[in-house]
Design goal:
The protein is α+β, with helices and mostly antiparallel strands and 405 residues long. It has helices spanning 12-16, 36-51, 94-109, 136-142, 147-152, 161-167, 179-183, 240-256, 293-311, 333-342, 356-360, 387-404, and strands at residues 6-7, 10-11, 55-58, 64-68, 75-81, 118-123, 185-193, 206-212, 214-223, 227-228, 262-271, 277-278, 281-290, 317-326, 329-330, 348-351, 366-371. The model has no long low-confidence stretch (mean pLDDT 96). The structure holds zinc ion.
Amino acid sequence: MTDGLIAHGRLAGLDEIAGVGVDPARGGYSRHVWTPAESELREWFTARAARLELDVETDRNGNLWAWWGAPGPDAVVTGSHLDSVPGGGAFDGPLGVVSALDAVARLQATGFQPSRPVAVVVFAEEEGSRFGVACLGSRLLSGAITADAARALTDADGVTVAEAAAAAGLAPEHLGRDDEALGRIGLFIELHVEQGRGLIDLGSPTAVASSILAHGRWRLRVSGQGNHAGATGMRERRDPVVAAARAVIAVEQAALATDDARATVGRMRIVPGGTNVIASEVDAWVDARAATDASTRALVADIESRVQEAVAGSGCTAELVEESWSGVVEFDPELAARLAGTLGGVPLLPTGAGHDAGVLNGAVPTAMVFVRNPTGVSHSPEEFAEADDCVAGVEALETLLRSVL
Ligand SMILES: [Zn+2]
């Protein structure tokens, strides 16, 4: 690989941030919104945009916009996010941001003059890793979550979004739907590493997105009786950890019984969490996804009834509460087909992963480009994309921008 975009075997932009937010305990990266690591990424983005003479602004909801030309209506916007899941990979999010900056740089290098405003965007808290609601920045921007609901969300330390936003220099009272920022978007194109194995067999480094599965998050709280691990006989217990273990298996069984469904418990909290303590409460978070809104709702209803069955007789109670919901996203088929055609007939591909583009779809014309992931692994330190494929992604984005500007 001799392309000037590449340094140390990866896109140079990814190489520049390779040391930011490294998580030695989990492996990979933990880059959560408004933490020192994420702030460092914002500074890196601002400096890199400045090198392209883009003007960077932070909107009322903490999203970053780097403008090529004066901000204005009918803008072509591209970008993604810089935050990560706990122990995430190097590509999910940053690949879209770096590719967007590189595509703009390549246009500039050829003396291209855009006929519409162009912006590179970085959406805040896409993963929802700190405050629990995915795509928080784009949801606030588009009004998909109310400002009051967002302000009250808390992180693991009890810090609210309002407090964290204020500490980051935002005015929490100004969080919420931003018609001015939204009204400037004429077209949003998000490039993203594929989070599945769809492109492996299609023999193409890139694809255009067709749809996103319905998905949401639910908090499963199992309550029992906290007690002494030595003084409480096995038959006298109301142990929520044991009940929660049965509940997690019930979640898996429900998903296995539904076509194309996925349900995951990837996070649990045991209260109080002592080795010689029978817990009083367990919180487990359920991520559930399926092909249609109705089948996802049916899956969650099935989870609920199987969970109740699983904990029955344990002396514990279980409660399932919705924390976030995203219906099926169908990207504009005409736009997707047109962009796929502009790229020489690349495939159209559905995905099971949520994205800011999915939140904005419906509010503004939206499309996505996927870059091949040779293992399909994502949300993991092993997440990967070949340098050649990343360059193909930048070139695809450049081609698309050229075609609409
Ligand atoms: Zn992502």
